[in-house]
């Protein structure tokens, strides 16, 4: 049996654009409508209208935490224009969660930005941080009663997808701009930390893929180390050092702090030496670590969650697994995925690593960015025509784990790894 501490958070995670629906004022919506993005989020899961039912469902299932994001473009649909109604809706969501004993963990920026902000250059231009500051000030008011607030979701994924591969808005393929954006995100984080710290525990959510060398040739090993630094660690290091090492030089950024680090963990990548130091960003090959691949084409490598925790522990901060999940229609596989990853989270805990919670991605099936609605990550199935929610078996199994703070022997015997 795996026993977790009583204070451990067992939650689920979502983000505004992926579930709310009708997010018409952000950059994603704009490119969805113009056809530059292959799919339209439309009503998504219609959570903006069904939030009460959704929170009720979470409570019934026994989850004691919920990570979600607030949509900047809802609060400020146009420059200088504030939307009170959206503010009140988010307030209601927060109050409902607190009332039900579900700990909110709120992210301020999860990939989407107001279109008007992006038209001014978004995070590429430092002078635009005054708009971010205005948003964070409002968030401070909005989030009263919340403890855990994260500034950015996966900053390096945002930079990679928006400015390197440029598969995502704003589709600006420029390595120079990319690292400039990263350095400005660090400035934005520091700004938000100063505004929020004291009233909130302020964190950042970082995706930590395991980056492996394609062979044990020294060249590949070095290339993997380099990619690992550039993707996984330079950004986090700079939060304290104030020196952000991009691919082409070092940027001076403010010395700041975090009160927790959120780890998103899904899979591993493989790196081969290349003349191009940015090869990882443009052409990361997914590592082949499991015979079966998820509907995203990803290997399943449960030990990686433990490795990510062990590596992030170098910063000496409390950690939360803010995302971990699987896209599959095979719900038995989802249960196995959760249990095997929890085995490794438990191993980390038993070795003294300060992990305080686990958030499964995702609460419900949702809009998977440029992949549209096909990948099904949810514990709860969504019927996109009626918006009906149908909890899968995994939703109940995870609920039992959450309520009891235990993974029972029967579950371990059926789904667990015999040995770690
Ligand atoms: C993360 C992201 C989420 C979700 C998930 C599954 O990178 O934060 O929004 O899409 O991946 O792909």
Characterise this structure.
- The protein is α/β, with parallel strands linked by helices.
- 42% of the residues lie in helices and 18% in strands.
- It has 15 helices and 17 strands.
- The strands form five sheets. Strands 2-3-4-5-6-10-13-14 form an eight-stranded parallel beta barrel, surrounded by six helices. A three-stranded mixed beta sheet has the order 7-11-12.
- A hairpin with a 2-residue loop joins strand 8 and strand 9.
- The relative contact order is 0.14.
- Beta-D-galactopyranose binds next to loops.
User: Please, how many helices?
Assistant: 15
Proportion of β residues? 15-25%
Instruction: Kindly provide the radius of gyration, computed on alpha-carbon positions and rounded to a whole number of angstroms.
Output: 20 Å
Helix percentage: 40-55%
Q: Walk across the major sheet and give the strand order.
A: 2-3-4-5-6-10-13-14
Small molecules (ligands, ions, cofactors) in the structure: beta-D-galactopyranose
What's the number of extended β-strand segments? 17
Question: By helix and strand content, what is the structural category?
Answer: alpha/beta
Task: Characterize this entry briefly.
It is built from 15 helices and 17 strands. By secondary structure, it is α/β, with parallel strands linked by helices. The chain binds beta-D-galactopyranose.
Features of this protein?
alpha/beta; 17 strands; binds beta-D-galactopyranose; eight-stranded parallel beta barrel; 420 residues; 42% helix; 15 helices
């Amino acid at each position: 049996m795996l026993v977790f501490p009583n204070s451990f958070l067992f939650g689920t995670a979502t983000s505004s654009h992926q579930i709310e629906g009708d997010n018409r004022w952000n950059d994603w919506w704009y490119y969805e409508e113009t056809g530059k993005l292959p799919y339209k989020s439309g009503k998504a899961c219609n959570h903006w209208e069904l939030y009460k039912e959704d929170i009720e469902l979470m409570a019934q299932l026994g989850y004691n935490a919920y990570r979600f994001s607030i949509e900047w473009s809802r609060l400020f649909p146009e420059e200088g224009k504030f939307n009170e109604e959206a503010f009140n809706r988010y307030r209601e969501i927060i109050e409902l969660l607190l009332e039900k004993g579900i700990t909110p963990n709120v992210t301020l920026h999860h990939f989407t930005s107001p279109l008007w902000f992006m038209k001014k250059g978004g995070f590429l231009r430092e002078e635009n941080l005054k708009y971010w500051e205005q948003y964070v000030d409002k968030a401070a008011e909005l989030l009263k009663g919340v403890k855990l607030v994260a500034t950015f979701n996966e900053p390096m994924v945002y930079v990679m997808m928006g400015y390197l591969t440029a598969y995502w808005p704003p589709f600006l393929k420029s390595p120079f701009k990319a690292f400039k954006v990263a350095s400005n995100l660090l400035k934005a984080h520091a700004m938000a930390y100063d505004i929020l710290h004291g009233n909130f525990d302020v964190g950042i959510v970082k995706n930590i893929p395991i980056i492996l060398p394609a062979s044990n040739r020294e060249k590949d090993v070095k290339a993997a180390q380099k990619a690992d630094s550039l993707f996984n660690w330079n950004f986090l290091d700079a939060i304290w050092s104030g020196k952000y090492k991009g691919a082409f030089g070092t940027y001076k950024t403010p010395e700041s702090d975090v009160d927790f680090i959120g780890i998103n963990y899904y899979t591993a990548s493989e790196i081969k030496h290349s003349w191009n130091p940015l090869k990882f960003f443009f052409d990361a090959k997914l590592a082949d670590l499991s015979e079966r691949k998820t509907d995203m084409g990803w290997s399943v490598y449960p030990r990686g969650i433990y490795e990510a925790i062990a590596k992030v522990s170098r910063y000496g901060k409390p950690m939360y697994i803010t995302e971990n999940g699987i896209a599959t229609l095979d719900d038995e596989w989802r249960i196995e995925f959760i249990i095997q990853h929890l085995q490794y989270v438990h191993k980390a805990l038993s070795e003294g690593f300060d992990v305080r919670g686990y958030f499964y991605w995702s609460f419900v099936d949702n809009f998977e960015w440029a992949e549209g609605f096909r990948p099904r990550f949810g514990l709860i199935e969504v019927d996109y025509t009626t918006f009906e929610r149908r909890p899968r078996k995994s939703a109940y199994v995870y609920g039992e784990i959450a309520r009891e703070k235990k993974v029972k022997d029967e579950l371990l015997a059926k789904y667990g790894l015999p040995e770690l």
